[in-house]
Design brief:
With about 375 residues, this protein is an alpha+beta fold. It has helices spanning about 1-30, 45-55, 65-80, 90-100, 110-130, 135-215, 220-250, 265-275, 290-310, 345-360, and strands spanning about 280-285, 315-325, 325-335, 360-370, 370-380. It is about 65% helix and about 10% strand. A hairpin with a 2-residue loop joins strand 4 (about 360-370) and strand 5. Helix 4 (about 90-100) runs parallel beside helix 6 (about 135-215), helix 6 (about 135-215) runs parallel beside helix 9 and helix 9 (about 290-310) packs antiparallel against helix 10 (about 345-360). It starts with a helix and ends in a 5-residue tail after the last strand.
Length: about 375
């Protein structure tokens, strides 16, 4: 940045030197303009040199104070025109270009007032003395072109800056969307971790109790219960390891197996039965391929409902799957143990309701005629 400012200052110094040299050269030789009588311009003297310096030197600071520089250059240029010093209108043209190119936040009213005053200071003396002659016409054309060029350059720069800002904004929005998607995925993983751990602990707890009770009476069943504990613990540890590794990795969830769907329903039912829950399954309607989100949500809801039935029920549960025309309906009913009332909804029910809502479905859960019923309706369409 410092190097760029130094180069700009050096370039503006060169422009000021060129403008000064052109003006002094023209005034020194005379004859830049001639009036209608044919007499030559005013010869160069000390006053002309001083006015030329006052006109050209401020151009060194034209990028820093464009409007003040124009306010200084204009009177000096007007005085030179009024005193009939013949010179090319370079300095004022550069000052006009600079104001149009770099407004620098100057209020439009102030900028327009300085512009109008500068033009008046330049044109009024010449018009009063010589009328609208060739010199005034040439100067007006040059100044108009300078203003137009500066304004066009400003607009082009603003368009480029606006396009760059839109690109940066689009990149920020894309990054924000990526972060939101990552946060949602990590929330889903955390919910899966809770469900997996809760289900596994419940199965292990039931099987451990059965193994303890049957250790002496029925060693074969006791060993079967221990094998179930081992299998469930091993599977759950693998799944938890994947999920925790994904949560630790801020870069994504690569390597995490997708949650199971209804294809794993038989395994889920077998595991629940081995945990001591008498599960009956009834399916109605023609089974169909489900969108992945619906399939996973259905499995998770069924697993959580069976886990709740095993914890709080009377040892039995009934699962009903109905493949309707537009939605899959899941119903899990289990008789309640004596003394178990409505109570407050736990995390499991809240999680099931959230899973249903994520796929634009609905879920109802609560006691009904001595049983606890979970009913979920999941529409088939994918959520956009």
């Amino acid at each position: 940045m410092a190097t760029l400012r130094a180069r700009s200052l050096l370039f503006d110094t060169a422009i000021a030197a060129v403008a000064l040299a052109m003006s002094l050269g023209a005034m020194g030789h005379g004859g830049w303009n001639r009036d209608h009588t044919g007499s030559a311009d005013h010869r160069l003297d000390a006053l002309g040199v001083a006015l030329a310096l006052a006109m050209a030197l401020p151009l060194v600071a034209r990028r820093i104070w464009p409007v003040p520089v124009l306010a200084v250059v204009a009177p000096a240029t007007g005085a030179l025109y009024g005193l009939d010093y013949g010179f090319p209108p370079v300095a004022f043209a550069v000052a006009l270009y600079t104001v149009a190119r770099w407004p620098h936040g100057t209020r439009a009213a102030i900028r327009n007032a300085v512009l109008a005053g500068s033009v008046a200071v330049l044109l009024v003396p010449s018009l009063a003395q010589h009328g609208f002659g060739p010199g005034v016409f040439a100067g007006t054309v040059v100044w108009a072109l300078a203003w137009f060029a500066g304004d066009r350059m400003r607009q082009r720069h603003e368009r480029i800056a606006s396009a760059a800002e839109r690109a940066r904004q689009a990149e920020r929005e894309a990054e924000r969307e990526r972060r939101l998607a990552s946060a949602e995925e990590r929330t889903r993983i955390a919910r899966d971790l809770h469900d997996s751990a809760g289900h596994a602990v419940n199965v292990i707890l039931v099987q451990a109790g059965a193994a303890r009770l049957l250790l002496e009476q029925d060693p074969a069943r006791s060993r079967a219960a221990l094998r179930t504990i081992e299998d469930v613990a091993r599977e759950t540890l693998v799944e938890i390891d994947q999920l925790v590794r994904a949560l630790r990795d801020p870069g994504g969830t690569d390597g995490v197996e997708p949650p199971a769907g209804l294809a794993a329903l038989d395994t889920l039912v077998a595991r629940s039965r081995s945990a001591g829950l008498d599960v009956g399954v009834e399916e109605t309607g023609e089974r169909r391929a489900l969108p992945r989100g619906i399939d996973q949500a259905a499995y998770r809801i069924l697993r959580e409902a069976l886990t709740n039935a095993s914890r709080h029920g009377a040892g039995a549960a009934r699962v009903e799957l109905s493949y309707g025309a537009s939605a899959l309906e899941l119903v899990v009913t289990n008789p309640l143990r004596a003394g178990v009332g409505e109570g407050r909804e736990g995390h499991g029910i809240v999680g099931m309701r959230e899973r249903a809502a994520l796929v634009d479905g609905t879920l109802e859960a609560g006691p009904e005629d001595g049983s606890f019923r979970v009913r979920a309706t999941l529409p088939y369409r994918e959520v956009s």
